[in-house]
Specification:
Layout: H1 8-20, H2 35-46, E1 57-62, H3 65-83, H4 90-96, E2 107-113, H5 131-149, E3 152-156, H6 162-168, E4 176-185, H7 194-197, H8 224-231
Antiparallel strand pairs: 1-2, 2-4, 3-4
Helix pairs in contact: 2-5
The structure holds flavin mononucleotide.
Length: 237
């Protein structure tokens, strides 16, 4: 029988996956992904939690060059629009960033949201309709971590027109693309996010993102021990 607890080695494995997962854009190799590995990764994604067990995701696997080129064109256009929103001197920095690996990666993968799966009533989605989209994001994170364990890099490209994506992939009107991902073997998983290495932004301290009981409350005495631990900024990575 499977134990309820993880032993130390199993825990280390999970934390290693979490802390060494990266968004990969520039380190893809041309090596194809083994189909058994890809199946395992997709199965991990499919075992994510979902509101009311609605499993509202679909995974569209893409190799076709023509499709990828269309998506890349959309990226180029949208990236140009984005760059116009950035003021100098950050603008030239922005333009130097590598923000996609659409053509270099072994495959592309579009993960979609279907709000109609299992009919209009979904347990837990009545008050917060976005819970359906959140469920798809849970699947994406499972996929990202499983890929890391398999040595496969994943890069999320959101600088795209969803309309162009829908046309290129022939999505029905009610299907919403949530993520466009590039997957492939990599030469390395960087130690830090590329945007941190490039000096764009840094990781916030854990202490900066935790409040106690209420928005912006930092000093609540019922949380003393954890406040101290968090201040020490426990780094597992
Ligand atoms: C919803 C979402 C959209 C993203 N879109 C892009 C993107 O269009 N291009 C890109 O280079 N990275 C994209 N990223 C990756 C983030 O930049 C990356 O996760 C962040 O810089 C932290 O780096 P890490 O994932 O390596 O830890 C996206 C990530 C998320 C979660």
């Amino acid at each position: 029988m499977m134990s309820n607890n993880f032993n130390e080695q199993e825990k280390d494995g999970l934390y290693k996956a979490i802390f060494s997962r990266r968004d990969v854009r520039s380190h893809f190799t041309s090596e194809p992904i083994d189909d058994e590995i890809l199946t395992r990764i997709l199965n991990a994604a499919h075992h994510a939690p979902s509101v009311g067990f609605s499993q509202p995701w679909n995974f569209i696997l893409i190799k076709n060059e023509e499709t990828r080129k269309k998506i890349k064109e959309s990226f180029i256009l949208e990236n140009k629009k984005a760059s116009e929103l950035v003021e100098d001197p950050k603008k030239s920095k922005y333009l130097s960033l590598k923000l996609e690996g659409i053509l270099e990666s072994a495959i592309n993968l579009c993960i979609t949201y279907d709000p109609t799966k299992f009919g209009p009533f979904v347990i837990g989605r009545t008050s917060i309709p976005e819970a359906g989209i959140y469920s798809v994001c849970c699947a994406i994170q499972n996929l990202w971590l499983a890929s890391r364990v398999e040595g496969i890099g994943v890069g999320w490209v959101s600088i795209l027109s969803n309309e162009e994506l829908k046309k290129a992939l022939e999505l029905p009107e009610h299907i919403m693309p949530i993520a466009y991902l590039c997957l492939g073997h990599v030469t390395e998983f960087a130690k830090k996010p590329d945007l941190e290495t490039e000096g764009w932004l840094s990781r916030l301290k854990l202490d900066d993102v935790i409040y106690y009981e209420k928005w912006e409350e930092k000093q609540n005495t019922n949380w003393k021990k954890i406040q101290e631990l968090i201040k020490e900024n426990l780094e597992y990575a």
